[in-house]
Amino acid sequence: MKRRTFLMSGAALVVTAPAASLAAAEPPAATGAKSKVVAVRGGEPEALFRKGIAELGGIATFVRPGQKVVVKPNIGWDRAPEYGANTNPDLVAEIVRQCIAAGASQVEVFDHTCNSWERCYRNSGIADAVTQAGGKMVEAHDRDSYREVSRPAAGSMKTALIHRAILDADVFINVPILKHHGGAKVTAALKNFMGLVWDRQYMHAHNLDQCIADAALYRKPDLNVIDAYRIMPTNGPRGVTLNDVRTVKYQILSTDIVAADVLACKLLRTKPEDVRYVALAAKHGLGTADESRIDVVRLEA
Amino acid sequence: MARSRFWRSLHALRICLAVLTIIAMTLAFGHGADCLALIAKANFGPALLSVITRFSVTGAIAVVAVLMLTAILGRAYCSVICPLGILQDAFGALLFWRKNHPQPRLFLLRKGVGVTVWSIAFIGGWAIGLRFLEPYTIFGAIAAYGWLPALVLLALVAWRRRFFCNSFCPVGALLACTAVHAPFGLRFTERCVKCGKCVTVCPAGCLDPKAGTIDNGRCIRCLACASACPFGAITYGHNPGFRFPTRRKALTVGGVLAGGAAVGVAAHFVSPSIIENAIRRKNVICPPGAGDAARFASKCTDCRLCVTQCPTEVIKPAGVAGIVHLDYATTGAQCKFDCKRCTEVCPTGALLPLTLAEKQRTRLGLAVIDTQRCRAFNGESCEVCAPACPAHALHMVRREDNSIVPEVDAERCIGCGACRSACPMEPKAIVVVPPEDDKQTLVPPLPTPHYDVICPPGAGSPQRLRSLCTDCNLCVANCLPQVIQPAGEKGIIHLAFDKGMCEDYCTTCGNVCPTGAITPLDLAIKQRSRLGLAVLEPSICVAFSTENSCGACAEHCPTGALRMKPDAEGHLVPMLTTELCIGCGSCEYPCPIRPIKAIRVHPLTDGVQVLATDRNEYFKATEPTPAPTSDAWLI
Questions:
Q1: pTM of the model
Q2: How far apart, in Å, are the Cα atoms of B23 and each of B20, B26, B344?
Q3: Distances B188 to B1, B192, B208, B239 between C-alpha atoms, Å
């Protein structure tokens, strides 16, 4: 080896060693097994969920008898289900039913809504569906329902007021709907976390993408079910007319929130690399954004 | 006989005039003859009183005119204008079979009563004497269906005809004093044969043919004697007028005057406390213009003109020892906001004349809600009273338990009883109590409305809203996002987006508005009604200055007017399509920039709410990307 080559490689080592150690700190992408994502299509929301959850081992894998479950759908808007602005009420009801069947002691459902909470709960159809399925709608418009939690690892939102239902539950099932988003480009599993934080405006003002990634640090969901029965490719997240809605009858289930969002982005014809919070969440170690490390199981319902 | 015919026709004219007067006065005390009520002001007693109570110029003119008339024609006032005098003549005509008799002069009684009554009024500032003795007032009491005074009067007339006029009448006393010293008067001529025919027709009993004298002080110029005289022996001519009295007479008269004045001075010191105590006990609400209740009680003669003229019949007479008052309890009526009739007609100045604007600000009392009885306080939905309030003083408010209840703004309440009269409960859940200290005060004027505000959907324009809105605040209480603000200093209901936005699917405010100030709109129209226009300030918006595509505004915009679009560098920034913007505040409310938000809704330039472009039409062109036809997986 020439002296010159030796010196060059030494310098290279000095430069790359910290980077390598950083890469090693990225679990589970670097070390663990592939993240499993189940994509189901071609049926009604309940049927899609039944098929998908069976592939993941059934609801009993996630909910044990006597556990307290919180289901967090997206109920942000005062819109009817056909506008695709809120999670499908049939899907939420099916999840609640299965949790109760699996022996959950209680199933709470809530969202910190954008429009008036009473109207959102009622007009989304979710309040009725959940109550009939045996779940309990929890109010989230009152500051007293939130508790302050801090996550020093967060990039921007180091402390936040988080809804007590999330903090108190044994099992957290995240049930977003897949939509376009004006600011963050895509709203799916990670973006759904804005509904469990009290001060949504703080997140908008202090680097939205970083805050979305930070929010997921406050409580890792045990299961993510992305409702893509109706998706909203344009004018999200609220939608203006029915032109913004397309019925594709998909559903994405995974325990890896980042991997689920990567597939969600693709379903919305958006490159996952363009959605900055996905990469930021992967950096937090919340899941993998590397498509080569995602194991997609495709099922027909 | 020519002269006699002259007197007969003059007598007939006098009777015609008297009949006209009494008909007019009777109608004035009834309904439907509004202009006639002004005749009351020509009566000497009330006119003189109005000079005392409020330096009334018209009152002074009437007093001077009557005195001048009396100086020339004698007490013609008593036979042509005074309604009670004419009424006595009418009673006398009913009792035609009873002959008239000469009457005692009763000089001291007349003078004593007159001076006492007027000095109590002048010096004592207390119209109590007039209340019981002033002829116009007594006529009022009779005209307003007072049977008792009518019967007493009838008995007096049956006994001695116009006895009242020359013994107790304080007006008669003053006019007699003038007439007796006037340069002209009636007298007998040498043609008199002392047949005594005139004596039998004279209601005042002032003729003494034997002595050949006519007492011009007592003569009420009814002209019955001259028209009855077969010889034309009574003529109008020179009156001896004033003569120096004897010392004895001067002392007597002086003594009577001094005594009357002394009573007046005593009344001055006694009256206020007596009246105030009496009123305190009564706990009454006085008509507008009464000022403070003690003042009103001391000036009002209870003539009942206001009682009969009140369109809602809410004013009730004083009775024997009371005070003219508003009776909301038994009438169930209200003091009409646009009416000041009582202050217009009051001839004595007890009710001060008010402009309509002043009357509408005059606090008569204070409405108090009985929360035990009120339906709204007991869990029922009732919102009748607040929209009925014409003074913008009764508001519906949302309580902590979400019930919506009425609340009186004591600062603004004028105690007109409109709310009480609207209250559906029986007995009523609202009572009106007299004002503090029984003094009427002016409530502050309504603030001048700011017309550069954002109005609720369906208001049309701020001007239209203001003209119809009663500030009942039902919309405020029902607006769940707390966007609609009470009028407050802006003087008009308006929107503010600090706590929420005008929700896209909500038409509550129009549906609850009871006055039509906010028109109920179809949802499709409401979703296009432009309330204001959003104005974006890129210099403070984080999306323009940093890498952070905040998107809070675009996220909430229901019309698609505000969407995040890439700028030249491909960075997402909010862009506004003005034609779609309805100014609902869905962008202003969530904007996280402080202290001044980067996007704010500005009021419309001309205030008129117009329809924005239909979002469904606007986005019709952008068909959704067609669903994939192939069976291939999208992911």
A1: 0.83
A2: 5, 5, 21
A3: 16, 6, 9, 11
The residue in chain A having the minimum alpha-carbon distance to the alpha carbon of residue B590 is A201
pLDDT < 70: residue spans in chain B: 1-3, 31-33, 240-242, 272, 279-281, 622-629
pLDDT digits 0-9 by tens, B492-512:
999 999 999 999 999 999 999
In this complex, is the C-beta atom of B571 within 8 Å of any C-beta atom belonging to chain A?
no
Which positions in chain B touch A248 (Cβ < 8 Å)?
Answer: 627-628, 634
Across the interface, do B563 and A182 touch by the CB < 8 Å criterion?
yes
Domain B268-361, second-level architecture: 2-Layer Sandwich (3.30)
ipTM: 0.86
Helix (H) or strand (E) holding B575: strand B572-576
pLDDT tens track for A7-47: 555 555 444 444 444 444 444 444 567 899 999 999 999 99
Q: Where are the domains of chain A?
A: 28-300
A205 vs B: CB within 8 A? yes
Strands of chain A (E only): list them. Answer: 35-41, 68-73, 106-109, 136-137, 146-150, 159-163, 171-175, 177-181, 185-187, 223-232, 246-254, 294-300
Domain edges within chain B: 2-248, 268-361, 525-618
Residues of A in contact with B622 (CB under 8 A): 234, 243
Those residues with Cβ within 8 angstroms of residue B250's Cβ, 6 or more apart along the chain or in another chain: none
Task: Please answer yes or no on whether A41 and B633 come within 8 Å at the CB atom.
Answer: yes
Write the residue in A114, A181, A243 that is nearest to B622 by C-beta.
A243
Show the tokens assigned to B470.
């009663």
From chain B, the residues in CB contact with A245 under 8 A are 624
| Partners of residue A183 in chain B, C-beta under 8 Å | 543, 549-552, 554-555, 564, 572
Facing residue for A235 by CB, picked from B505, B560, B620: B560
Q: Please give the Cα distance from A274 to B67 (Å, whole number).
A: 104
A-facing residues of B in 488-507 (CB < 8 A) are 500-501, 503-506
pLDDT digits (tens, 9 = 90+) for B527-560: 999 999 999 999 999 999 998 999 999 999 999 9
Please state which of the four CATH numbers 3.40.50.300, 3.40.630.10, 3.30.365.10, 3.30.70.20 is assigned to the domain occupying B525-618.
3.30.70.20
For the stretch A162-174, pLDDT in tens is 999 999 999 999 9
Mark yes or no for CB contact B550/A205 under 8 Å: yes
CATH class of A28-300: alpha beta
Distance CA B185, CA B299 (A): 35
> Among candidates B60, B56, B27, which has minimal Cα distance to B44?
B60
